[in-house]
Write a structure and sequence with these properties.
homodimer, alpha/beta, elongated
Chain lengths: 347, 347
DNA sequence: TTGTAAGCGTTATCAG
DNA sequence: CTGATAACGCTTACAA
């Protein structure tokens, strides 16, 4: 008995039902589904109509098996900032919505020696259509090569151009920080503390470099006593803030490499009885939710995270039936300073 | 030519390779993979050894097709609180890690009339192993019935017992709020404002009821002028805070139904030149990141969101090869008051 | 431009 | 307890 001669009407329609109903072979139906160019317009219409009537939807599992490729987009990351991850998810999902692709989330441990192997196992098993890599692991070239060798598309998000346009979405952190710190200098600050991001993060380096460039441009020396390092988390910002405020003379302003650490520094200031911004100006980076929600509202640098994630998703979908446009997406995205209430002239 | 006689050694090993190498049929290998109880121990060991040697991993796509069921857990939600969603993801992923299951994230629009149909289409297409439903849509019984009719397992997370144990993970919001507000009363507050959550949220109702019960238990009347409603977002908390502070006489304390709104109320107080907690005490709910990061650190109610998500994931995995234990997971989780610095006696 | 046959890698059925 | 054979629903050769 032929496996294709299933009785119709029960359960969801399959490609066989459509083929029978429209009087063509299932391969032809397959061609319609996949927008094959070599198809008689009439045939296509006939099949398309039946598909619409029946509400037929191709079975993704069967397609995945035959194509050796799943209709899934992976978000693989080891990002310490929850808000960032969430923003990226939001952007990706907004593009994936309405397509046949779904989002699968895969955190990894960048500290682990087996990280690359873990990702390899994941990719080999799931055969995703493509993945989005978040910083800091997006900076790992081994991972990019791995994807390549496995035939898995990828887009890296990062704070510098690390790859070709089709595989990269970047922000200009360095320039953005330069602007932010120049803003502090313009307000009259001369002793400005820096809370760096963790070692090994490209974004940390870019932001630190931007800080240095701004000082240099103003002819200011970088005082080593005013430079501390955090790990992008609140607690580290708190510790770094305490340390900076212990310097003599005290800095009149602090640039923290992300908002969470800025919030930590703000806590340190409050705990020390200091008023922000009267006694201490603070600028953060990211413009995550917390920036606007703490008091005083934090002046910070906003990078268009959701837009960047959307671009990443579109790049992954480029060339597929679900591509929403033919125009290539931007690769470099500009950040901007969001002025709120945490900056004032030094007294 | 038999499709099973592929030449070995190229590409990833398949079930056929394992069958050939261990001298059994592929069905037997399948039985080993699926922990079939009716298997000769020797046979099993032999096959298991080969599997380990070759590093064979069953192909999820093929399994999905044959089983008509994917090895995926879905997180379907329309939750307005980013931190909550993230916490849930974290909990789910920590349980899924090391299993053969992956997490797929699916936001839906609870306002849309087609919401249930959208979820139906999603479930029919993806054939997930199971899904986790977050509030407020977890309160929707139609959705639960839908899952049932589609043979998709589910676990609902919520603030009240809405389903049987195997399908429910709940917190005791009402009691927790009662405790929190009693704490305010014990500190000497008599005029306490309430910022309710949005209509239609069970959690909003539970928390409001807990508030009312605490007042009643202390013999205090509920002044309608001291009750406002927000939508669980910061801005709504800001507006609600302004409104409450305009009441005469002013409340000396506010309970906000979540942290974001509490942060908004805090902003309103600062903007009005009030000191927190000296002039106004505030308690929030959730203990999301912002609670500890704003100034003053917010006294709030912590519900064990990550633990609850873990329990949800384990309930979904119960009975599978990946079940990590036989003991059933708890259904009701207790919240606790986290005392920080936003509460003081009224002056 | 369309159809036929043979997979994709697994599990279910049912007989031994 | 084990194995042959037929699905699962789709796509890729290769013909026609």
């Amino acid at each position: 008995m032929d496996s294709d001669s299933d009785s119709p009407g029960q359960g969801k329609p399959t490609i066989n039902d459509i083929a029978r109903l429209s009087g063509v072979s299932k391969k032809t139906v397959s061609r319609v589904i996949n927008r094959s160019p070599l198809l008689n317009a009439e045939t296509r219409k006939r099949v398309d109509d039946i598909i619409r009537e029946t509400g037929y939807v191709p079975n993704p599992q069967a397609r995945a098996l035959a194509l050796r490729r799943n209709f899934l987009i992976g978000l693989v990351h080891d990002n310490p900032n929850a808000q960032t991850v969430l923003g990226v998810q939001q952007g990706l999902l907004s593009v994936l919505k309405g397509t046949e692709y779904e989002l699968i989330v895969r955190p990894v441990d960048r500290g682990s020696l087996s990280m690359v192997d873990d990702v390899r196992a994941f990719l080999e098993r799931q055969r995703l259509h493509g993945i989005v890599l978040l910083p800091p692991i997006s900076e790992n070239d081994d991972l990019a090569r791995l994807c390549d060798s496995l035939g898995c598309r990828y887009v890296r998000m990062g704070s510098a151009l690390l790859d070709v346009d089709e595989r990269m979405v970047a922000s200009n952190d360095r320039e953005a920080v330069r602007t932010a710190v120049a803003h502090l200098i313009a307000a009259g600050h001369r002793r400005i503390g820096l809370i760096e991001g963790p070692e090994g993060f490209r974004s940390a380096r870019e932001r630190r470099d931007g800080f240095g460039e701004a000082l240099a441009a103003a002819g200011l020396a970088l005082d080593p006593a005013l430079v501390t390092r955090g790990n992008y988390r609140f607690e580290s910002g708190l510790a770094a803030g305490r340390q900076l405020l212990a310097a003599a003379p005290r800095p009149t302003a602090i640039f923290a490499s992300n908002d969470e650490m800025a919030a930590g520094a703000l806590h340190a200031a409050r705990a020390a009885g200091l008023d922000v911004p009267a006694d201490l100006s603070i600028i953060g980076f990211d413009d995550t939710a917390i920036a606007a929600h703490i008091w005083p509202p934090l002046t910070t640098v906003r990078w268009p995270i959701i837009e960047m994630a959307k671009a990443a998703a579109r790049k992954l979908l480029a060339g597929t039936v679900d591509a929403q446009t033919n125009a290539p997406d931007a690769t470099l995205f500009l950040s901007q300073l969001i002025e709120r209430a945490s900056v004032a002239p030094p007294r």
